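Students often ask what a holo structure prediction actually looks like on paper. The answer is less mysterious than it sounds. You provide the chain, you provide the ligand, and the output is a string of discrete structure tokens encoding the 3D arrangement of the protein together with zinc ion.
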Amino acid sequence: MSSVASYAMGMEIIHLGSGSSGNSTLLRSDETSVLIDCGFSLKQMESRLRMAGVEPTSIDGVLVTHHHSDHSKTALRASKNWDAVLYSNLETATRMGWEPIVECRTFGALERIVVSDEISLLPIPVPHDDADNVAVIASNGDGRRAAVVTDLGELTADLMRHLSGCSHISIEANYDHDRLMSGPYPEVLKRRISGRGGHLSNAQTGDALSEIVNNNLESVVLCHLSERNNAPHLAESEVLMSMEERFSGSIGISLQSGPEFSNWLGQSEPERISSL
Ligand SMILES: [Zn+2]
Ligand SMILES: [Zn+2]
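The corresponding structure tokens follow.
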């Protein structure tokens, strides 16, 4: 395969924003654009897409990981307005009141979703509250893979196995354990966040990445940081410390505000997105 052809198979990962007020990640190849989650207002979704240089109507698919509104809020309206296919599992469709076949295409656990011959998505169930949440492993056709993993209390063996084959991993680092425990949240909420159905702490994410890290891993983006119980420098330093010198790729942080950078599979350094 010539280098031009392999470039055409590339995939770009752009975080339009992440956190408890909204999440959406754009995966883009030459001819295909798909969103993982659609948790901002439609106006915000469209302006963030345009900041990333993407016309909203060019979106081919929107996959919703679970029904919580910071991931699902405007997915149905967006899919209709942009003429994009809406994907979710049956539990999420039911909780959202979406009608399968008519309004959304449902998938089963570990059932490969072929968006186009450039991008396919593999949903992997993860434990999270009362939701049937999934992590997503995206493949771009030349064997490279990217993961988008948010809203889970712990990493399953299945997920760890799939993550170890990824070139790019976007994963939540929701809270700093000490900040959560010494903070103002009521005990019951602290227990819920740190429990099996809650979110990953910086330490959990660091431990997982230190187990996974190998030469294929080019870039990591930490996302869904709690504004009250975490800080970018805490998340980044804890995760980097866990991976030690075994990780030679780049690390970035996706915050609640709009897209700041993009990662390309096959390229460890992120590219800045310059807002006009
Ligand atoms: Zn969330
Ligand atoms: Zn959630």
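The chain has one domain: 3-258.
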